[in-house]
Amino acid sequence: MSAPLYVSTRGGADPVPFREALLDGLAPDGGLYVPTHVPALPAGWQSATALADLGGRVLAEWLPEVDRLDALVMDALSFPIPLVPLRGGGWDGVHVLELFHGPTLSFKDVGARTMARLMGAALGGEPVTILAATSGDTGSAVASGFEGVEGVRVVLLYPMGQVSAVQERQLIVERDNVQALAVEGTFDDCQRLVKQAFSEARPAKGRLSSANSINIGRLLPQTLYYLWAGRELAVAGAEGPPAFVVPSGNLGNLTAGTLAMRGGLDVAGFLAAHNANDGFPRFLDGGDPPAGDSVRTLSNAMDVGVPSNLERLRSLFSDDQLRSLVRGEAVTDEETTASMRRVHDETGYLADPHTAVGLEAARRARGRGEAGPMIVLSTAHPAKFPEAVEAAAGVAPEAPERLASLWDAPVSVETIPSTLDALRAHL
């Protein structure tokens, strides 16, 4: 079967090849791009001995037109993604997939670095402005991923006062091709501005594109670590397919997992672990789609009131299918803190607040009698949230050198109101 084309979730745009979907970000009708079909996993994919090797094989089925794809993926995915088993306290059979060993210590390095290299290859020097809203980790991963890519300028929007000190420092470190904007509003306001800019504003030079998980180029690489986890679990001799516990906000991570499953990964199901922004769990329980404002929590990268990728999930699955495949859990800040403490006390494992939300959801699932292997996606390094982790677990996480050196670097940031006119001045 040939590589997929990409169609809008809203049905008002013609199918386009990957390059156009990647560079445009959003479809002309305002919808999100989804593939016309999901390529089957290549024969022998589980024999890959490294993540980049697996990535080259799998993405070749999606992107046969990309030259030197293997080298591109090798460069992007040059860091480990270990699968760590938990021991003690009833945690046997629960594994943590550590996705935070990339340059910015967040799972978003996987998608952002790969997308940056795909986009650089597709542009061939053509100027582009990358517009990205971030609730904490996306912005720094995008800025790092696109650093030095010819012709690319990055504009980051983040909600002022609503990211951790470490996250903000990662966002505002001075880079030649990056403009950080602190928005007087919420992450939902930042997302709204991005979508308005695509429909109503254009940069003074070149094209406008997105690096949020609304861009299909971010999602496809994220399927790879689900496959890698499945492969690692099989090598370890686990019996039965895993259930994936996904700390969730904008639902891009979960969507990537469902694409991996559609391609042929054997999955027992998904558990979407949310903080107090619980619109998606309520939807899964039969409620209306999320429509409310976000609220601030310890797991701030998941503070999303209206998840963009729900539109994509509802295009890929009927509501009944989605509710059968995915269970939702909502975890309060108090429960998040208790989870960090409990897991450290019982297993010695030190988790950040986002991972702790996933671990609490996994604990509840075990309490309901759900057996079988379970993989909790760990989305950020605990050193990005040192105060919250130490307050909960009584242990200060050790900061990698690349975090410690941030505090001596020059910074550049501007504050803007949450209006399109204010953003337009920076495009």
UniProtKB/TrEMBL annotation:
One GO biological process term: threonine biosynthetic process
Stretches of the chain forming a coiled coil according to its record: none
Name of the featured protein: Threonine synthase
PROSITE patterns reported in the protein's UniProt record: DEHYDRATASE_SER_THR (PS00165)
The EC number(s) this enzyme carries: 4.2.3.1
Molecular-function GO terms, alphabetical: pyridoxal phosphate binding; threonine synthase activity
Domain Tryptophan synthase beta chain-like PALP: 94-374
Cofactors named for this entry: pyridoxal 5'-phosphate
Record-linked InterPro entries: Ser/Thr_deHydtase_PyrdxlP-BS (IPR000634), Thr_synth_N (IPR029144), Thr_synth_N_sf (IPR037158), Thr_synthase-like (IPR004450), Threonine_Synthase (IPR051166), TrpB-like_PALP (IPR001926), TrpB-like_PALP_sf (IPR036052)
Broad enzyme group: lyase
NCBIfam families: thrC
Pfam families recorded: PALP, Thr_synth_N
Keywords from the UniProt entry: Amino-acid biosynthesis, Lyase, Pyridoxal phosphate, Threonine biosynthesis
Gene source species: Rubrivirga marina
Pathway: Amino-acid biosynthesis; L-threonine biosynthesis; L-threonine from L-aspartate: step 5/5
Protein origin, superkingdom: Bacteria
SUPFAM superfamilies documented for this protein: Tryptophan synthase beta subunit-like PLP-dependent enzymes
Threonine synthase N-terminal domain ranges (all copies): 6-63
Record family assignment: Belongs to the threonine synthase family.
Chemical reaction(s) catalysed: O-phospho-L-homoserine + H2O = L-threonine + phosphate
Signal peptide start and end residues: none
Modification N6-(pyridoxal phosphate)lysine, positions: K108
